[in-house]
Design goal:
globular, F-box domain-containing protein, 10 strands, alpha/beta, two-stranded parallel sheet, six-stranded parallel β-sheet
């Protein structure tokens, strides 16, 4: 399995055992995941795209517990760069993992002006080339790209000779 998209996923406290069952997993999208807090630290060498949409406390716990060396794209909900804890959590994830984020998507309901301000601050502070603030999980850029890949595989399969 390369892609896992789930709603209301219950992660075990020993999260690493959950992820070790899918060593080829590259994409993990979870809306409203829950677990027995706090999560135990875990690592996954292949995860490239991760999206976690839930409370800011869970997002911070998830990012503090993970080491993801292949991570390039991250989408999280309900964070503000004005929250120094979140700044530390994002910095910690990137430095601990040794990854190079090329894109960060933040899912929130901020005004357009606040979204632009946050995008600029985060991009500059963390040297992330693309920071987007988006309003809707189902229509966020990363989810749209994932759905496009699914449709292409499903409907545009080349005929076998």
């Amino acid at each position: 399995m390369n892609v896992l998209v789930a709603e209301e996923l219950v992660l075990p406290r020993d999260t690493e055992s959950f992820f070790l069952k899918s060593p080829t997993l590259t994409d993990f999208f979870a809306r409203q995941p829950c677990s027995t807090w706090p999560l135990q630290p875990f690592s996954h060498p292949k995860l490239e795209r991760v999206a976690v949409h839930c409370s800011s406390a869970y997002v911070a716990d998830f990012m503090s517990a993970t080491t993801l060396p292949s991570l390039t794209d991250l989408a999280v909900s309900s964070i503000s760069y004005h929250d120094s804890k979140m700044e530390d959590v994002l910095n910690g994830l990137v430095h601990r993992s040794g990854c190079r984020l090329r894109r960060l998507n933040i899912l929130n309901g901020w005004s357009h002006e606040k979204r632009l301000l946050e995008q600029h601050k985060i991009s500059k502070a963390l040297a992330i080339p693309v920071v987007n603030c988006e309003l809707d999980w189902d229509n966020m850029t990363m989810m749209h790209e994932l759905k496009t890949e699914w449709y292409e595989r499903e409907y545009f399969v080349e005929p076998k000779p």
